[in-house]
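Sat 14:20. Reprocessing the chain from the morning session after the first attempt stalled halfway. Input below, unchanged.
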Amino acid sequence: MTHSADARVANPSLPRVAVADPAAKRMRAALKAAYHSARNLPDRILHSRRHAAVRRRLSRMRRPRSILVVCHGNVCRSPYLHAVLQRAFSDAAVSSAGFIGRDRPVPTLSLEVSARRGIDLSHFRSRALTLANVQWADLVIVMDAGQARYIERVFLVRPEKVVIAGDLDPAASPTRAIRDPWMQSVHVFESSFDRLDRCAATLVTVLSRGAGH
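Finished this time. Tokens:
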């Protein structure tokens, strides 16, 4: 009998100490991975169709003169894409906003990863999403389908004015959403910004072809 078992015999009120079962842990990890894979399967199946559809839609629309980029807090994803698009479109006004908070700086890892890509976000401060800045924009870019539905429903924005950033990515990813790197590792910041760079490249290519509209 172990010391812990002896202690429980002497004092039955002591809690039992759970012993981690490596096989059970592996099983839980496998089930979790299978769940996420199955949940995101529609995103992977539909990606090519969505990518082609958004390219067609953008190629047919008038070239936007104002672009609003939206993410949850306007401190990680949208400031970066905002800066990338502003650099690419000298003839358009680009802004960004979030659903929570205002006047917050971007996190340190975002500053570092952005700086390595030639973008200085040290003076950026977050803005709150409002009816005024949504109405101002000719094109609204969001990070996931839930954000698109919210903007369309609450601000009464036409769906054709809203683009889900992940649909612009020519490379298929595990999910349609651009992952939020907030409080995550530098690897997650780099991965999310890589996707946003690809999304921006698609937008620039398609809108440049329609520059004469």
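The first strand starts at residue 66 and ends at 71.
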